[in-house]
Design brief:
There is one protein chain. The longest helix is centred in the middle third of the chain and has 30 residues, at 127-156. By secondary structure, this protein is mostly helical. It has one domain: MFS general substrate transporter like domains (Growth Hormone, Chain: A). It has helices at 3-21, 23-35, 39-67, 70-89, 94-108, 111-122, 127-156, 158-179, 198-227, 232-257, 262-282, 286-300, 303-313, 320-348, 351-354, 357-369. The termini are far apart. The protein is globular.
Length: 372
């Protein structure tokens, strides 16, 4: 299989996998209204997917290195997400939604460590560029899915969205299986002590804080817009803009990571994006919010490919999948706490106070990555 064909195939699979992650955040205000949820319950529902997203990634990364069955792992993950989404669409209680969202997170946990490991081994030169292009596929999905979700929910109700998107997931799953050709992987002993390294842990913890800021914004931006009486179409539009600009941001970040010092780039992008995300959540003027969502989306999404490159640079190649699994597990598990913390603070004080956590998370991420 040629490098370009592999990149195109994983681009569209990434598009679908990451797009699924933002369907629930877009529809949260409508779900919270139907089930009369508190901010704490809403935060728990939103964070539940991130819990299993994090918990499953280390296991799937390890299995990809141990068995070499990357194609089967990615296909089974997409199928699991698709089935879980349909079950969410027919749920009639908060606890049913919570359970199926946990299962959806488990399915979505497969893709990142397996695919990034695969691409890192294929693109030994200009790796940052390849990971940036691949990452832009995820951002494109995170731009398209919220917008479609918001429009469909306004026209047909939020349940219809969860029933329709599984069709796309299954189609992409079938295409991925038919198009991808998997090469045999040389089996090597997986010695996990290589991962017990402070330089690797620093990258993982920095990713965790950056992910907390991202998860907090994705969950509370629609809730903020709902409080300002905007529609579900607006929820989707704002999330689409934030992640749509990430298509450009991922490519810029990947390009810069090949020519500049990576930790300095992560520090700068983290600090600027934290400030602009806080301004976005604190504003109440529609067009001013549009300006801040564009700036923050562009700057924040430059960070991802740089962190991916840092991790793979510091991890032995034969355990890239396991290392990336640990990397994503740490990031998602930490990120799952952000909407829960913000929900508790919103119930105890006010939603506006909880917004101060966003820049705090990015500052902590910037400080951690500078540690030697």
């Amino acid at each position: 299989m040629s490098k370009s064909r592999m990149l195109i195939t994983t681009f569209f699979t990434h598009f679908t996998n990451d797009g699924f992650e933002l369907v629930l955040p877009t529809l949260l205000p409508l779900i919270a209204r139907e089930f009369s949820l508190t901010y704490s319950q809403t935060g728990l529902l939103a964070g539940s997917m991130a819990i299993t997203l994090g918990g499953g990634q280390f296991l799937t990364g390890y299995l990809s290195d141990k068995t070499g069955k990357r194609k089967a792992l990615i296909a089974s993950g997409l199928l699991c997400v698709s089935v879980s989404f349909y079950l969410m669409g027919i749920s009639h209680s908060y606890w049913e939604l919570l359970i199926w969202n946990l299962l959806a997170g488990l399915g979505a946990s497969v893709y990142h460590p397996v695919s990034v490991s695969l691409l890192s081994q294929i693109f030994t030169e200009r790796k940052g560029r390849a990971l940036g292009i691949h990452g832009s596929g995820g951002n494109l999905g995170m731009a398209v899915f919220p917008l479609l979700s918001g429009v469909l929910a306004e026209l047909y109700g939020w349940r219809s969205v969860f029933k329709l998107f599984p069709i796309l997931g299954i189609v992409i799953c079938i295409l991925f299986v038919l198009v991808t050709r998997e090469k045999p992987v040389k089996q090597e002993t997986i010695d996990l002590h290589h991962l017990i390294d402070h330089k690797i842990l620093i990258v993982i913890i920095s990713l965790g804080f950056v992910s907390m800021a991202s998860r907090g914004l994705h969950i509370f931006l629609p809730l903020r817009l709902a409080a300002l009486s905007y529609s579900s179409t607006d929820f989707g539009l704002f999330l689409s803009l934030f992640n749509g600009l990430g298509v450009i941001g991922q490519i810029i970040g990947g390009y810069l990571s090949d020519i500049h010092e990576k930790t300095r780039l992560v520090t700068a992008f983290s600090l600027v994006s934290g400030l602009t995300m806080f301004m976005l959540l604190s504003s109440d003027t529609y067009y001013l919010m549009i300006v801040f969502v564009i700036i923050s989306g562009l700057v924040f999404n430059c960070i991802w490919p740089i962190l991916f490159c840092l991790l793979t640079d510091r991890t032995p190649q034969h355990i890239h999948g396991t290392g990336l699994g640990l990397f994503f597990s740490g990031g998602y598990i930490m990120s799952s706490s952000a909407p829960i913390l913000m929900g508790i603070i919103s119930d105890m004080s006010s939603m506006g106070i909880s917004f101060f956590l966003i820049p705090l998370f990015t500052v902590l991420g910037a400080l951690v990555i500078r540690k030697k």
